[in-house]
TrEMBL record, chain A:
SUPFAM superfamilies: MetI-like (SSF161098). Residues 67-262 form the ABC transmembrane type-1 domain. The chain crosses the membrane at residues 12-36, 71-95, 107-126, 138-162, 183-204, 238-261. Belongs to the binding-protein-dependent transport system permease family. CysTW subfamily. GO terms for cellular component: plasma membrane. It comes from Xaviernesmea oryzae. PROSITE patterns: ABC_TM1. Keywords: Cell membrane, Membrane, Transmembrane, Transmembrane helix, Transport. It holds the Pfam family BPD_transp_1. CDD domains: TM_PBP2. This is Spermidine/putrescine transport system permease protein.
From TrEMBL, chain B:
One of its GO terms (biological process) is transmembrane transport. Its main location: membrane. This is Spermidine/putrescine transport system permease protein. It comes from Xaviernesmea oryzae. The chain crosses the membrane at residues 29-50, 80-102, 114-140, 160-181, 214-237, 266-286. GO terms for cellular component: plasma membrane. It is found in: Cell membrane.
Automatic annotation (TrEMBL), chain C:
It comes from Xaviernesmea oryzae. Residues 29-260 form the ABC transporter domain. One of its GO terms (biological process) is quaternary ammonium group transport. Keywords: ATP-binding, Nucleotide-binding, Transport. This is Spermidine/putrescine transport system ATP-binding protein. PROSITE patterns: ABC_TRANSPORTER_1, ABC_TRANSPORTER_2. Pfam families: ABC_tran, TOBE_2. GO terms for molecular function: ATP binding; ATP hydrolysis activity; transmembrane transporter activity.
């Protein structure tokens, strides 16, 4: 039943949410505008629109290598973190074992940790081991932060998993590997896909860890930062916008794929 | 739902003696955390006690780095104060900003809440420097705000860029999702029946909120507050991009010590102090919470 | 209706010691043509009922019959799409739950998990800003009433057993001191034995408090034990309402009869001479009925009114068949008897039927007065 004050509260929440969403996307729109202006220096209102800087960004060999680095890191991070996190999530949410509560809390610590400090600590550690920082060390750094996040994402799906299903399969004579393939994995697929999506996108957009642990190799966010500090050209917002749009496309395609998997599960 | 342990069959038992399935499943992640998280922190701890401006780790022991931090003639403590104050302000303001949205996501947006949620998640996948730089373009002289106002015939926008306030604004902007989503999970933990029952027993809106909703959503809210505090205390990009060095945060001091100054022991001591504050807080709050309940175990 | 009109104590139970001497009072709760429509689906489709002061009325129905929606409208959590709900003559269609002197005991009980037993019970008193000491005294009084030990006052409510939680929920509802209490199957999650105990306690509490109870459940058995009147709901409509006796002996429809338990039901048509015949032409004698019934109907015969016949019999209806299987019901036995393509259920006391077993040929009979004709 709706009273007048409830209607007012509802209106307030909706307007406030819309306002905050607008604020969230405003700078992204500003960046897109800056990347499309013809002038070397940004000024508003934009006098002449042009795709010149987009073209230059596409053509740049330097940027191609950045994209390759970012993609390579993101793919490896996704692959490794999903495998690690799948088992991690089972340990987190499925099995009852001594040390589970400790594990649950330990796994949160890297998430509850300032990333710049984590990056610097890793830099120190790699140095102590005599490893030269490069894109490979950046992969390790990303994993330390992303595996716990993906573990949590998959764990949420694992919580909704009824363990008696595995017991029933076992009772019907299935081997552990068979159960994993036929029962556990199919039910957890949506969670695993969501985890993979998170892993890819978080790695793709990560700045503080890459900044300190990638050494001489650069990623898109790292390069953008160096140009923001010194050497602005409209290629900076153009590349930033491209990176954002790619992330949006990945999210859209991945989200649709997950929705499809869920629907097929519901229909079957 | 009760978690169920596997009882290994006879064949497996001989191969894998007495290692519980949970421990085996936890092994890869645990190994990663030991090598990629614990070991670096121990290295930092070791460097913190080495001779200043040297690389004599494990071969020297001194507290000189810490006394340098607390030396009043040094301004490092100012960075600490700024960072913690920023973090505290971020937590307080974000709690107020995010609560109505988290409430709406659970109780008001209905079928739209999925889409609204995605709109708030997406910025997490865009690196913060890109988003913060968008604000630079918005606030800068002749930027979107200033230029737009002039175009409309006003005298131009206020000069907010490169001020301490801009840093706080940037932190609110970047860390909003980290407050919003745990808070939303917390609010999702309030059974609808309890709110209906309280109302049925005559409670006013305010009383329901104070007596029922807030206490029951508290675990989620606390996690959000903890997360934003920790991230805020270690913030660096906001002050570099929006703050223009008007305030030096502690993470920046650590960075300088590790890079330009090549004073790893001092940087380590600073990092260790920050970690001590942050992890002390994190462990304290986490020890109060039951993660099974928050993440959906019934 | 303002909360101020509600006295903070239980009404004097002495005013209602014997139902028989109560004058016919105006209904405390009156429903006229109440409908609730979700989209193009009528969850509640035209309910008319008067509930008298101090009555214990139970609404039974299968899941999806609309009984929960009806209750939520009575409690104020939904408003009716059509019709009127009045409480003591005042229209309360759109009065929110916190403004009506009624209280709902939820199926989930909706106890506040972060509060103690005492704090739960005191919640409505705190709402009314009663002083702490007074609140505690009242809570302890209510705990005595629902038979909770005093030391439970400071106990975490989530540490209580299922039965104890029921009592806390009841005490909390009574603390609100409502005119009418609503119950949404609060006993459904309990084991059978505890349920039986609490059913009787609830009925005792009803008698002692003199309050009006409206209870919904899908268990007719539960309804029979406790209620003054039982209403049977199906597809959003109230099919029949009456005393448990009436519902049992004079079911208005086949649905009501079958909802009550296992029955033998036969589809019949008129034989043209005032009697009824089965599909295969066999005539069947039935109890006289006042109801206006069309050319086809259903005859209901309860298994416990059927009997095995050995010698000559006064039974109005006789069928021969073969026992297919037998089921023990404790003190009674039930037999499945096949005759042609028809299946009959016969129930008898264990001692009354010596030596019958599967495969035996038997004759079963029942009296005309036990064969109830219902429409539909």
């Amino acid at each position: 039943m709706e009273t007048r004050s409830q209607i007012r509260a509802r209106a307030f929440v909706k307007i406030w949410t819309a306002f905050v969403i607008l604020a969230i996307y405003l700078p992204i729109i500003c960046g897109a505008l800056a990347g499309l202006s013809k002038g070397r220096y940004f000024g508003f209102p934009i006098r002449v629109f042009s795709t010149e800087w987009w073209g230059k960004t596409f053509a740049s060999l330097e940027i191609q290598s950045l994209v390759q680095n970012s993609l390579l890191i993101a793919f490896i991070v996704t692959l490794v973190s999903v495998v690690f996190a799948f088992f991690g999530a089972l340990a987190f949410a499925r099995y009852d074992w001594r040390g589970r509560k400790l594990f649950q809390k330990a796994i949160l610590l890297p998430v509850f940790f300032p990333q710049p400090v984590l990056g610097l600590a890793l830099l120190l550690w790699f140095n102590a081991l005599g490893i030269n920082p490069s894109w490979q060390t950046a992969v390790v750094a990303h994993l330390v932060w992303i595996v716990p996040v993906v573990t949590l994402v998959i764990a949420i799906q694992v919580y909704s998993f009824d363990p008696t299903l595995e017991e029933a399969a076992r009772d019907l004579g299935a081997s552990r590997w068979f159960i994993l393939r036929e029962v556990t994995l199919p039910i957890l697929w949506p969670g695993i896909w969501s985890g993979a999506l998170f892993a890819f996108l978080l790695s793709w957009g990560n700045f503080p860890l890459s900044l300190y642990t990638a050494g001489v190799d650069s990623t898109i966010p790292k390069w953008l930062y160096s140009k923001m500090v010194a050497g602005y050209s409209p290629m900076v917002p153009a590349l930033g916008t491209m990176s954002t749009l790619s992330a949006a496309a990945v999210l859209l395609v991945g989200g649709l794929a997950i929705a499809l998997v869920r629907r097929r599960q519901a229909d079957a | 739902m009760a978690a169920v342990t596997y009882t290994a069959t006879a064949g497996e038992r001989s191969l894998l003696p007495a290692i519980p399935a949970g421990l085996r499943a936890a092994a890869p992640v645990t190994l990663l955390l030991v090598l990629g998280f614990l070991a670096p922190l121990l290295t930092v701890a070791a460097y913190a006690f080495a001779t200043p401006k040297s690389f004599d780790v494990f071969r020297s022991f001194t507290l000189a780095n810490f006394s340098a931090v607390f030396d009043p003639s040094n301004t490092v403590w100012m960075s600490f104060a700024w960072s913690l104050a920023y973090a505290a302000a971020t937590v307080a303001l974000l709690a107020v900003i995010a609560y109505p949205i988290a409430y709406g996501l659970n109780r008001m947006f209905g079928k739209w809440s999925g889409l609204v949620g995605v709109l708030f998640v997406f910025p997490l996948f865009v690196s913060e420097n890109v988003r913060l730089y968008g604000w630079v373009l918005f606030f800068i002289k002749n930027g979107v705000l200033d230029g737009g106002l002039k175009w409309l015939g006003f005298s131009g926008g206020p000069e907010v860029l490169y001020t301490p306030g801009a840093i706080l604004f940037g932190m609110l902007y970047v860390y909003l999702p980290f407050m919003l989503f745990p808070m939303s999970l917390g609010i999702a933990m309030i059974p609808r029946d309890l709110v209906d029952a309280a109302r049925d027993l005559g409670a006013s809106r305010l009383m329901i909120w104070r007596e029922i909703e807030l206490p029951l959503a508290m675990p989620g809210i606390l996690i959000g507050m903890l997360l934003t505090f920790v991230l805020g205390a270690g913030a660096i990009a906001e002050s570099k991009i929006l703050g223009g060095q008007s305030v030096i945060t502690i993470a920046q001091d650590i960075e300088v010590a590790f890079t330009y100054a090549q004073n790893w022991p001092l940087g380590s001591a600073l990092a260790l102090l920050l970690v001590a504050i942050v992890s002390g807080l994190a462990l304290y709050v986490l020890s109060k919470l039951d993660l099974d309940r928050i993440l959906g175990k019934r | 209706m303002s909360l101020a009109t509600i006295s903070p104590t239980l009404p004097d139970t002495a005013t209602k010691t014997d139902d028989a001497v109560l004058p016919a009072t105006a209904p405390v709760l009156q429903l006229v043509g109440v409908r609730k429509i979700f989209g193009d689906f009528a969850a509640v489709d035209g309910i008319n009922v008067d509930i008298k002061e101090g009555e214990f009325v139970t609404i039974v129905g299968p899941s999806g019959s609309g009984k929960t929606t009806l209750l939520r409208m009575l409690a104020g959590m939904e408003s009716p799409s059509e019709g009127y709900i009045t409480l003591r003559g005042e229209l309360i269609n759109d009065v929110p739950p916190d403004k009506r002197p009624t209280c709902l005991v939820f199926q989930s009980l909706a106890l506040f998990p972060h509060k103690t037993v005492g704090e739960n019970i005191e919640f409505p008193l705190k709402v009314r800003r009663m002083a702490a000491a007074e609140r505690k005294a009242r809570a302890l009084e209510l705990m005595r009433m629902v038979r909770l030990p005093e030391h439970y006052y400071a106990k975490n409510v989530m540490r209580c057993s299922g039965g104890e939680k029921q009592r806390v929920a009841l005490a909390r509802a009574f603390a609100y001191d409502p005119d009418v209490l609503f119950f949404d199957e609060p006993l459904s999650a309990l084991d059978y034995k505890l349920k039986k105990v609490l059913e009787k306690e609830l009925k005792d509490l009803h008698r002692e408090s003199g309050k009006t109870f409206v209870y919904i459940t899908h268990s007719l058995e539960e309804a029979m034990v406790m209620s003054d009147r039982v209403g049977v709901m199906s597809r959003g409509r109230l099919v029949q309402i009456g005393t448990p006796e009436e519902i049992y002996t004079k079911p208005a429809t086949r649905f009501v009869a079958e909802f009550f338990g296992e029955v033998n039901s036969f589809e019949v048509r008129r034989d043209g001479q005032g009697g009824w015949i089965l599909g295969d032409g066999q005539s069947i004698t039935v109890a006289p009925t006042d109801e206006v019934i069309g050319d086809t109907a259903t005859v209901i015969v309860r298994p416990e009114t059927m009997r095995f016949v050995t010698g000559p019999s006064t039974a109005g209806n006789l069928i021969t068949g073969r026992i297919y299987n037998e089921y023990s019901l404790g003190s009674r036995m039930q037999y499945q008897v096949h005759s042609g393509d028809r299946i009959y259920l016969v129930e008898a006391a264990r001692a009354a039927v010596p030596g019958l077993s599967s495969g035996d040929s038997v004759t079963i009979g029942w009296d005309a007065r036990d064969a109830i004709v219902v429409g539909g």
